[in-house]
Amino acid sequence: MRRILLTVEYDGTNYAGWQRQLNGLAVQQVLEEALQRATGERIVVTGASRTDAGVHALGQAVHFDTESRIPPEKYPFVLNTMLPRDVRVHTGREVPPEFHTRFMTRRKRYTYRIINSRHASAIRRCTHVHVPVPLDVPAMQEAAKQLLGTHDFAAFQAAGGTAKTTVRTIYSADLTASGDELTLVIEGDAFLYNMVRIIAGTLIEIGHGKRSGDAFSEAYRTLDRLSLGVTAPPHGLELTKVYYPEEAFVFPEQLKWHTD
User: Fold this and answer.
1) Which of 44, 70, 118, 121 falls 20 to 30 Å from 166 in CA-CA distance?
2) 257 pLDDT above the threshold of 60
3) How far apart (Å, rounded) are the C-alpha atoms in residues 79 and 68?
């Protein structure tokens, strides 16, 4: 039995999120069915992030166990012949049996994209949220600075969140503008349920002048969800990258060799 780690990209438009469920087609189901065809085994995959319906991923990390002798680096070639065009596997590698995509994550990077123009975009309609009213970008950029550091983000969690603690560390939160496109790139050690979408929705309201520029600081003080803006639509969000510590990839026999 070997544990395999895959990096998966998907357009979430036509899926009911990452996690397999009864009321819609999920990315997990599509990937598991392809793996079953490839290996002849009943495969269950575990993803680093349970992205919601409509949310995209450029670098979702996925692990699974198999007795198949397919070389790990060949999984992208095998699976991409079976997967729909909106799901693609980019890398495959064998990892130690203790490796876990969710529990060993060191940090994650998310990207949220906005089109700020009078008219919506046809080409970018599934990956960018359209905001037709002019936004005060400098005010949004200044507000984003309040996100940095370690805080209690209890106010940044939507109903239904199950995190044991709401304290998180944000390492970077950069909002850039290019033409009519605004891009928020945020990295943290972990994120609460809908946290990035709540941040994006709040920044949009700050850009509208509908919410104070110190909204994030106020939310740390009150821990009240009503201190922040609406939850922005899912299709502007992308799970961009998942980071792991190097020691997570060290096999037990390699560790023993280094300590002898």
Assistant:
1) 44
2) no
3) 14
Exposed/middle/buried for 40, CB within 10 Å: 0-12, 13-18, 19+?
Answer: exposed
Residue 155 three-state SS: helix
The yes-or-no verdict on residue 159 having pLDDT over 90 is no
Catalytic residue among 52, 136, 214, 260: 52
Query: Is 52 annotated in the active site?
Result: yes
Count Cβ neighbours within 10 Å for each residue of 89-128 and write b for 16 or more, e otherwise. Answer: beebeebbeebbbeebbebbbbbbbbbbeeeeeeebeebb
State the Cα angle at 114 between 9 and 61, rounded to 5°: 20
Instruction: State the average pLDDT for the chain.
Output: 96
Taking the C-alpha atoms of residue 63 and residue 103, their distance in angstroms, rounded to an integer, is 12
| The two structure tokens encoding residue 187 | 């990295």
Q: What is the pLDDT of residues 205-241, one digit of tens each?
A: 999 999 999 999 999 999 999 999 999 999 999 999 9
Judge whether residue 256 has pLDDT over 80. Answer: no
C-alpha to C-alpha distances, 157 to 112, 167, 218, 226, 248, nearest whole angstrom: 17, 11, 15, 11, 29
pLDDT exceeding 70 applies to what percent of the chain?
97
pLDDT cut 90: percent of the chain above it: 93
- Is the CB of residue 102 less than 8 Å from the CB of residue 137? no
CB 4 within 8 A of CB 89: no
CA distance 139 to 216: 13
pLDDT value at position 260?
47
| Cα separation values, 192 from 152, 156, 162, 174, 195, Å | 11, 7, 8, 19, 5
- Computed from CA positions of residues 77, 79, 82, 84, in that sequence, does the dihedral angle turn out positive or negative? negative
In whole angstroms, give the CA distance from residue 158 to residue 197: 10
